[in-house]
Design goal:
Layout lengths: L6 E7 L3 H17 L5 E7 L6 H8 L7 E4 L6 H11 L4 E4 L4 E3 L3 H11 L4 E9 L14 E4 L2 H8 L9 E4 L17 H13 L2 E12 L8 H15 L7 H14 L1 H11 L4 H12 L3 H12 L2 H18 L3 H17 L1
Parallel strand pairs: 1-2, 1-4, 2-3, 6-9
Antiparallel strand pairs: 4-8, 5-9, 6-8, 7-9
């Protein structure tokens, strides 16, 4: 009987062949240069009309095998992500975005970690990049921290619970889970992360930067509906089923200060979004928190100039509070470098 792979890396993709090529090239480099074994690679092609199939064929070699799945019809992103999880044979599963990359040495680090200890979830901190993921790397700062309390773990990782490329899920502790049950809200992965974290109750968060994620390369959905309403509903569904009200409140505070100010700031900078609708959605989730009225409400309700100033200040405070200031600093440096070169 063939041994179970230690890790399945499953990539859902649709019509982004150029990004997929870069992802597969870096994945191949990581595996071959470090002589890594026990890894299954899957590409789940959601009926792409471009040359995705040829990219996969070109990447194949004896020491870098890929299991290629091509859907006859586009089944939507949720169902494709669910298919990735269900098809994976590995002890652990990483659903990797088709435009996301392991930083040099990070896959080797991950394989060492999951060989040494059993975890429900291993969360790896990402950073955004625009052009060159190596040049824009913020540095290998941070530490690895093990959490025995699921609420504390979720509060520590905050919005990373929604990032498919950031969370490695122990599939062996979810033997009866069909990921298709969680389709419909753009957050299939959140259920999987919470289920695995609750089942094993020993989870790892590495606050060092391991994953490079292409900036501004996704969308097509109502951001606040997904990351405030839907995410909040998912967390609430686990209230009393492993997550306490106190844990959910801590997570909400993490999102409110550490994540949402920057998104709202970008909206005001671009004059996009319906601020009245944004206010309604935010109030439904956060109105009982004093931090909402101080850090978020002015960004959506004040005149644009004041809102931009307030959004910038709130973003800096949140980045400092949750250890993301360095990433924000590198973001500014790389933007300056980009415009200087141009």
């Amino acid at each position: 009987m063939q041994a179970q792979p230690l890790l399945s890396i499953a990539i859902p993709t649709y019509s982004r062949a150029s990004y997929l090529k870069e992802t597969l090239d870096q994945l191949s480099l990581e595996i071959l240069s470090h002589h890594l074994d026990g890894i299954e690679i899957i590409v789940s092609d959601n009926a792409s009309p471009d040359h995705t199939q040829q990219v996969v064929a070109d990447a194949l070699r004896p020491e870098f095998e890929i299991r290629y799945l091509k859907n006859l019809n586009n089944i939507g992103p949720d169902a494709n992500i669910a298919q990735c999880f269900n098809e994976a044979k590995g002890h652990y599963v990483l659903i990797l975005g088709d435009d996301d990359l392991f930083y040099d040495g990070s896959l080797k680090w991950l394989m060492t970690v999951i060989r040494q200890q059993e975890y429900g979830v291993v969360c790896m901190r990402p950073y955004g990049f625009d052009a060159d993921f190596r040049l824009e790397y913020p540095g290998r700062f941070g530490r690895d921290e093990v959490f025995d309390d699921v609420g504390q773990f979720l509060s520590a990782i905050g919005p990373l619970v929604t990032l498919i490329s950031g969370c490695v899920i122990n599939k062996n502790c979810l033997p009866k889970v069909d990921a298709n049950e969680f389709c419909g809200r753009n957050l299939v992965q959140v259920h999987l992360v919470i289920e695995a974290a609750l089942n094993l109750k020993k989870n790892l968060y590495s606050s060092r930067y391991h994953m490079a994620c292409k900036r501004n390369n996704s969308g097509g959905y109502d951001y606040l509906q997904v990351f405030v309403e839907h995410l909040g509903d998912i967390l609430d569904s686990y209230r009393g089923k492993g997550l306490s009200s106190r844990s959910i409140l801590a997570f909400d505070k993490r999102m409110l200060l550490g994540h949402l100010p920057f998104y709202l700031l970008k909206q005001r900078l671009s004059n996009a979004g319906d601020q009245q609708a944004n206010t309604t959605k935010l109030k439904l989730r956060y109105a009982s928190l004093w931090t909402f009225w101080i850090f978020l409400m002015p960004i959506v309700s004040m005149p644009r100039f004041i809102a931009i100033f307030w959004g910038g200040a709130s973003t800096v405070i949140g980045r400092i509070r949750y250890g993301d200031f360095l990433r924000g600093f590198y973001f500014l440096i790389n933007k300056i470098r980009y415009f200087t070169i141009r």
